[in-house]
Amino acid sequence: MQIQVVKSKIHRVKVTGADLNYIGSITIDEALLDASNIIEGEKVSIVNINNGERFDTYAIKGEKNSGIITLNGPAARKVQKDDIIIIISYATLEFEEAKTFKPWIIFPNENDNSLT
């Protein structure tokens, strides 16, 4: 039997932009992607702390150490600049493997989305 578990989580980052006219996705600072073990193109769930919205999109790489967190395309309607969000990705694992799996969870600075 397989189950889905949290693989990666970027806990509480500030939205730096919302670009309705982009194709779609979320642009995430490369340093945050690396630290959370999320890869470009990976499906991610977004939870907006400010308004309760929950939706799925995919990650694209933003400039390293820029702090960028931009929602693109239709997802831009579900956030506003300066909203605080949580970014989560999941993995499907065998049940026994899932019992010992340890996710990558990071807690960036909410003010500038840095890892320090």
UniProtKB/TrEMBL annotation:
GO terms in the biological process aspect are:
alanine biosynthetic process; pantothenate biosynthetic process
Please report the name of this protein according to its UniProt entry. Aspartate 1-decarboxylase
Q: How does it assemble?
A: Heterooctamer of four alpha and four beta subunits.
The annotated pathway is:
Cofactor biosynthesis; (R)-pantothenate biosynthesis; beta-alanine from L-aspartate: step 1/1
What cofactor does this one take?
pyruvate
Q: Which residues bind substrate?
A: T57, G73, P74, A75
Record-annotated active site: S25, Y58
Task: State the EC number(s).
Answer: 4.1.1.11
PANTHER family reported in the protein's UniProt record = ASPARTATE 1-DECARBOXYLASE
Catalyzed reactions per annotation: L-aspartate + H(+) = beta-alanine + CO2
Gene of this entry: panD
Q: Which UniProt keywords apply?
A: Autocatalytic cleavage, Cytoplasm, Decarboxylase, Lyase, Pantothenate biosynthesis, Pyruvate, Schiff base, Zymogen
**What is one term from the GO cellular component aspect held by the record?**
cytosol
Co-factor binding comment: Binds 1 pyruvoyl group covalently per subunit.
The keyword Cytoplasm belongs to this UniProt entry's keyword annotation: yes
Stored NCBIfam families: panD
PTM annotation, UniProt: Is synthesized initially as an inactive proenzyme, which is activated by self-cleavage at a specific serine bond to produce a beta-subunit with a hydroxyl group at its C-terminus and an alpha-subunit with a pyruvoyl group at its N-terminus.
Q: Name one GO molecular function term.
A: aspartate 1-decarboxylase activity
Please give one Pfam family short name: Asp_decarbox
| HAMAP family membership | PanD
Name the family the entry cites.
Belongs to the PanD family.
Pyruvic acid (Ser) modified-residue sites: S25
Specify the superkingdom: Bacteria
The record lists the lineage as: Bacteria, Pseudomonadati, Bacteroidota, Flavobacteriia, Flavobacteriales
CDD domains per the UniProt record, alphabetical:
Asp_decarbox (cd06919)
Subcellular location as annotated? Cytoplasm
Task: List the InterPro entries hit by this protein, alphabetically.
Answer: Asp_de-COase-like_dom_sf (IPR009010), Asp_decarbox (IPR003190)
**Free-text function comment from the UniProt entry:** Catalyzes the pyruvoyl-dependent decarboxylation of aspartate to produce beta-alanine.
Q: Which organism is it from?
A: Flavobacterium xinjiangense
